[in-house]
Write a structure and sequence with these properties.
alpha/beta, Rossmann fold, 2 domains, globular, AB_hydrolase_fold
């Protein structure tokens, strides 16, 4: 018995010493992360841009107003510079997989030498609840997610906070600031639309005026030509879809037509030079290859990996429609109205109405308040049609539009004078 007691005492001493050594081997940040009760798992990541980087899994309520409804794990990536540095919270609108890369660093974190907390959006990739109950995918819940993450990390990073995101992530940064105006000191939404309907109505007239008449004619001529050649191109298009395993909720000819209608939006969105558009006399294979390159039919597949985005667009974030008038003679569809619901939404949500509450709330917030915000847009990006470029005479809200820019517009792509102005504003606000 005495020997057993001696062995137990020795084992206990060894365990305590091992725990002490293990704890001392942890960095200050790891120890601080270990004290956040909502974090259930932490994994170290490689980084050539930060001194420490971790992916964590954060427990969030499905419905922040009713925690009893259940919870899910949200992926949050922590990239560390210093406890005394400002912190950028990236309000990603989609998945976070690309942020795991060792070389990844968001623009503001690089410009300001700031810590980076990257939050994967709910219902995307590893932050998808099971079962996938669509009723909890709301803008308010996503803002509540960000608020919970910010509150958990504020004691670790007590300095200034900047919220930023690109495209749908920019929308998320905007709605986050609306729901929680005091959570962050600065917001920088990139190419963020503020749409008023499931088919907003401002994108189609924008595309009729964008850039030059010559560029617009070249685009429309290409669209008309691939529609005129539908007899020979459609079988090849269908063969491509079959080989890729693409499944749709509409006949293949309609998908062909929608790919043609989407073409002009997609080309301007990503800034593809019109010089790359084949001549209308080009061979069939060349025309089809270009169409597939710019406006691939995989955008319209049933059960899309980005179905969560389409649900949010139809529910409250808004989207765009198509102008079918120039092409009516060659289209198999009578009207494109309602295409988002018919083609891209989960079957059980195809009749979901659009709720204007969010857009009205954001618009009211921007008109009645003047938070420190910088908006970045591209002049030729169709999403700019629904941008907040109407905001005028504000001391703190600044809108920059890159001349000839696309959806890739960033602070670094602005003309030198505007880039300098934006960076000086940020540094001034951080003082």
């Amino acid at each position: 018995m005495k020997n057993l007691r001696s062995c137990y005492a020795a084992f206990l001493l060894f365990a305590l010493l091992s725990a002490s050594v293990s704890l001392s081997a942890q960095t200050d940040l790891q120890q601080k992360l270990g004290k956040i009760s909502a974090i259930t798992e932490t994994q170290s990541l490689e980084s050539s841009r930060f001194s420490e980087k971790y992916v964590t899994y954060f427990t969030q309520p499905l419905d922040h107003r009713h925690p009893e409804k259940g919870s899910f794990r949200q992926r949050v990536i922590i990239s560390h510079v210093g406890f005394d540095r400002p912190t950028v919270i990236v309000t990603e609108g989609y998945g976070a997989a690309y942020a795991l890369h060792p070389k990844y660093r968001e623009e503001l974190s690089r410009l300001l030498d700031a810590n980076m907390i990257f939050v994967e959006h709910r219902y995307f990739l590893e932050s998808t609840p099971e079962p996938k109950d669509w009723q909890y995918l709301t803008a308010e819940n996503s803002a509540d997610d960000l608020h919970a993450v910010r509150n958990a990390f504020k004691s670790i990073y007590p300095g200034k906070w900047i919220a930023t995101g690109i495209s749908k992530g920019g929308q998320t940064a905007l709605l986050y600031r609306t729901f929680y105006p005091d959570d962050v000191d600065i917001s920088v939404p990139y190419v963020a639309p503020l749409c008023y309907a499931a088919e907003d109505g401002r994108h189609e007239p924008f595309l009729q005026k964008v850039s030059t008449a010559e560029a617009r004619k070249k685009i429309e001529d290409f669209q008309l030509e691939v529609l005129k050649r539908k007899g020979t191109l459609l079988p090849r298009f269908e063969k491509y879809c079959t080989e890729k395993g693409l499944k749709f909720r509409a006949p293949i000819e309609e998908i062909y037509d929608y790919s043609v209608l989407e073409y002009s939006f997609a080309l301007w969105q990503w800034g593809t030079p019109t010089s790359t558009i084949p001549a209308v006399t080009a061979p069939d294979d060349e025309l089809l290859a270009h169409l597939l390159d710019i406006s691939n039919p995989d955008y319209f597949i049933a059960d899309s990996p980005t179905a969560s985005f389409f649900v949010q667009a139809a529910r409250e974030l808004g989207y765009y429609g198509y102008d079918t008038k120039p092409f009516k003679k060659y289209l198999s569809i009578r009207s494109s109205k309602g295409y988002l619901h018919r083609l891209m939404l989960p079957e059980e949500l195809k009749d979901m109405p659009f709720d204007k509450t969010l857009s009205r709330k954001i618009t009211k917030f921007l008109k009645e308040n003047d938070p420190k915000m910088i908006f970045i847009y591209g002049e030729n990006d169709p999403w700019t049609a629904a941008g907040v470029t109407w905001l005028k005479e504000k001391k703190n809200i600044h809108v920059f539009v890159e001349p000839g820019g696309s959806h890739k517009a960033r602070i670094s792509t602005l003309p030198e004078a505007e880039k300098k102005e934006a960076i000086e504003l940020l540094n001034q606000w951080l003082k």
